[in-house]
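Handoff note, outgoing to incoming analyst
You'll be picking up this chain. Sequence as last confirmed:
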Amino acid sequence: MKKILIPKLLISDLEEAIVEYNGEIYGGLKIDVAFYFVSLLFSIPTYYRETNNVTESVRLSSKRLKSVNYKYSEYLQFLMKYGFIEKINNYSTNNKTCNSYVIGDLYSGSELIAYEITDKFLLRRFHRNGHSEAQFEKMEHVLEIRPYLVASFNDNLSINTVAAKEEVFLYLEDNYYKYQSASQLLLEWENKEWSYSVKPKSDNRIHSTMTRTNKILRKHISYNGISLGEVDIKTSQPFFLMAILNGVLRGDKSYLRDLGVMNVLEEEVLCNLLNLDLCADNIALFTDVILNGDLYKELVDCIPVVYEDNKPFRMVWPNGQYGVPKIPKFYDNERDLMKEIVLEVLNGSVKSRKTEVVAFKKLFPCIDMFLNCLSDNGVKVFNLLSNIEAYCLLDITGEYIANKHEGIPLFSIHDSLVSTENYLLTIKSEMEIVLEDITGYKPNLKVECWGRSHSLLQNESLISHQKYISS
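Most recent structure output, in case you need it:
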């Protein structure tokens, strides 16, 4: 079975258009294939970070489309001819980007409904669970390397469809992009069409239906009838950066290997890092802020913040389109703004001259020196930190918990481990022990329940935690 998401207003129009079109062209087009190509404009964006831009285009790979139907080009021409989709830009050989498309104006903002594919030839392109062959192979790979973090994607995992649909529908008029994203993911949850993969050449994290699911839907998810929650490492990437800096300062290769640094860096790059003349006092300052304070709140006093109508904002390029006029981006509070600045420092260009970035590097010149060394050696700091995070949290801590507490449902969302609410404090306790054993530093962890109040979670989980440990 394979169900897809389609604008309700489009269905009858497309059915009529394809009958008209097939009357003119020999061979004809199939209705299910046409619907499937349209549905990609709603399913593909959920694999990327959400934005509030309702007109964001979707790149459609010709290779991917051809694997579905060799006449894909004719289908696209048909869909554009009748206004079901619109092409935004053409393929560029310079930056190797695919053609981008958006849904036609007439159907943008329309209610989305599920459509079941019945064409037998098209269904052969998918496994029984609705996944393509490529998706199926990626899932098999994760089952080989981290089975303990995906085994609980089973029939015990479910979503309250009625409650979730009611909440998602509220976004239809107010935020269509959020509505279509949540609708697509809800469809996958309803059909138990879960997916998961790992990108070993980039972040090495698990990317799954769980990581893609937004907060609108998370509160409605349960396992054996019990709501889920997560335990996350606060300021995770800065925490592991702090550990690496201290290891480099001590010249401790064995420690850095235990962190997983050598899973990413060549020996020569590590030697270059060890030769850096890092300031011990500056690293000590950064370490103290990470372990005993709140990095983002501390930065509010050190990095200039601009306000408009009492809300902090900064000027940014829209959707990362460098060179176009900047627009103001507003934040709920100063802390959220500082969090984004830190991410930009760690993931952006080391040559950035943005005021906030320069201010951060002036505060922590040890980090500036470290980032420049990595850049000079062709290493992306995000890849390094996310790989170390994945190694320490998923490969070591996650496997340890799964082996010690057999039967606990366990998932991951990047820097968090996810389980049912009654086991969250057990997981928090084990995470503290294992991560401190690996890094030598006690991490700051945060427990968040998705379904009920935190106070209720604490009382119930504490009882369950104590019973579980004593058993």
